Amino acid sequence: MSPDTPRSFVAWMLSHGIQRKLIQRGARRGELISRLVMDPSLRENPFPAYEELRSRGPIGDNGLIRASVDHAVCNEVLRSDAFGTAGGQGELPAPLRWLHHRVVDPDTLGPVDPPSMLAVDPPLHTRYRKQVARAFTARKVGRMGDRVESVAADLLDRLTRELGTDTDFDLVDRYASLLPVTVIADLLGVPESDHGRLLELGNEAAVTLDPGLSWQQFKRAEVALREMHCWMQAHVDRLEANPGDDLISQLTLLGDDDRLTPIELRQVGLLVLGAGFETTVNLIANAVAMLDAHPEQLAWLQDNPDGWPNAVDEVLRHQSPVQVTLRIALRDVEVADTKFDKGAGILCYLGGANRDPAVFDDPSVFDVTRTNADQHVAFSAGVHYCLGASLARLEAAVALRALYETFPDLGISGAPQRRETRVLRGFEHLPVTTGARVVV
Ligand code: HEM
Fold it and tell me: Could you give phi then psi for residue 154, rounded to 5 degrees?
């Protein structure tokens, strides 16, 4: 047993363990919101459960937590300054939150632990966001189009060469994960030799977005997070000594008034890195799975390549890569005739709101020509609205068009394997065949 194990066990109990017991108890009783959070059988297909929740009204309540799949409610909560993330541990009573803060090891902080941007509220959030947003303005992302095209072309060239006369490959390992990691690594000045290890570590740490982790899951993720922090610190030190034109170098060069502490800098860097590749990989693979199931829509896109951006929004709507996010009432507030006391939580099911029939006609139908597909909340809303939304849309549209131009007959060739994660919806493996590919 390592000397840190008791401390880490207390951190787990406070952040996941107690919650896990309560959710498991609810799930055993068949209670819907607990099952949505915990039941592995709903990971594959949570959509009927969302509809059951919808049939009960705009906000469901299991006595522990509220949940909503209502587009208007999710939008209102996410945009309201009466709700926030409350430091990631908002549901815990104040003394336990204090204890958690004392025991948690800063070298293992995850994407939803403060001071991650995702886990803090204004004004602290505004301070971090302002520094990072500079790298993601619409103009800057627009200028990245050529670079994303060339990354996609290089990956497909290499894949074609490596495949030789083979026709089968894993879309996730060989393409969908590599494109986003290459693009975000460019933005953060990360050398190519580190991409593979960071992908592995990011994959192991992604589970920390989920609530109610087991002690084993928590421990595994902690090991990965520790290595990521160590790597990021060395990366920051390297760039501080020898700055480039990447985002991390810019952050190290901030003046005294804006300067981030070493932990803040690592958390910002790791969030942008992880958010940059852990989500877009799912968007690309989810798109391939949906197009495989709807070959007529794929054929239409191949004839009408200008339709790719809208198709990407339809995948974001129908198979949202981030299914749910939590908000805590920062003061007493009422939403849709439901009273929230300060400290009460609500799960906003983005994947459910994106199938709200009040906004989307025949919401369960996948239709790449849907005219209001972009009204989804797959990138959240309000102050935490995804910073990389334009980049993710660009990457996915370029990645998919280039993929099907290279392999026009691409199709799924084996059993897809879903990711274990519940907040993130995507595939661990998606075996595909290039079909009747002409070998060059
Ligand atoms: C399909 C791809 C993506 C999806 C579905 C997605 C989704 C989201 C969602 C739902 C949030 C907000 C969570 C909340 O409200 O609690 C978020 C935040 C964020 N995303 Fe993305 N994201 C994607 C790609 C990216 C990319 C490519 C980057 C970086 C380049 C990125 C960077 C961020 C950052 C930094 C935040 C935190 C923003 C804040 O707290 O102010 N995301 N993303």
Answer: -65, -45
